Amino acid sequence: MATKLGEKAALVTGASSGNGRAIARRFAEEGASITVADIREDPRMGGDPTHELIEESGGTAQYVECDVSSIADLQAAVDATVDAYGSLDVMVNNAGVERQLPIEEAGEDDYDWLMDINLKGVYFGSQAAIQQMVDQESSGAIINMSSIGGIRGLDDSSLYCTSKGGVTNLTRQLAIEHGENDIRVNALNPGFIETAMTMEDGETADDILDQTPLGRAGQPEEVADAALFLASDESSFVTGHNLVMDGGFTA
Q1: Paired sense of beta strands 9-13 and 33-38, if any
Q2: pLDDT one-digit tens code per residue, 204-243
Q3: Number of DSSP helices (H) and strands (E) in the chain, helices first
């Protein structure tokens, strides 16, 4: 049976839990060999590690410990992917964090922590992936995890929205820079998705869901389906795009 990502190698950061876990598993179902790059091997919600689940289902996967705020770790994850699978064809810069603070309460440590993961990690993850894709002289796809917070404001989220706004525009810029290399760069901008991390703040969840026309939270599997579209040849003429998937929240 034909698969959408057959023989491609994909690196997914933050893939031990949540959206990244769903993306890694969905890509593996479509034939990709997966590198699960995360600071922790065990999923936040409990259960078997992502790479083990993929292998148990007949897929190919490896786990690489990776702190995305470390440029050396990001490069090591790219190198491990190439060493194991021979190439890097899809890079998903998914790892991210959130912290709600009004600007008058945000300190330098808060700023550095969130920006190092949400923006620096995406910037240098993209850099390492692009360098590899250019060197191997093949087409590639980069998918960055932005947010509705990257295109509009959210309550007490100046740090988060600043970081995701950076991801949104970085995605556009990299698409312009590397279209000539046949490297497509797109972003996902989810609204409220039901993961272990987002469900920790029930008050925020209720506020967003009250304003969501579809009246429910999104599921990680729905994010994974959108990521699959952007990774596959079905989106071969799509680059520089920020794909909003928020149940109508920003409508």
Answers
A1: parallel
A2: 667 778 889 999 999 999 999 999 999 999 999 999 999 9
A3: 8, 7
Q: What domain range includes position 219?
A: 9-237
Q: Is residue 144 part of a domain?
A: yes
- 239 in Cβ contact with 185 (< 8 Å): yes
Residue 102 lies inside a defined structural domain of this protein = yes
160 is catalytic: yes
Output the six-digit token pair for 85: 């699978």
| Domain-located, residue 1 | no
Task: Please give the model's pTM, rounded to 2 decimal places.
Answer: 0.95
> What CATH number is attached to the domain comprising 70?
3.40.50.720
Give me the catalytic one of 63, 85, 123, 160.
160
Q: Does 163 map to a domain?
A: yes
With vertex at residue 18, the alpha carbon angle to CA 13 and CA 36, rounded to the nearest 5 degrees, is 30
Assess contact for 20 and 38: CB atoms under 8 A. yes
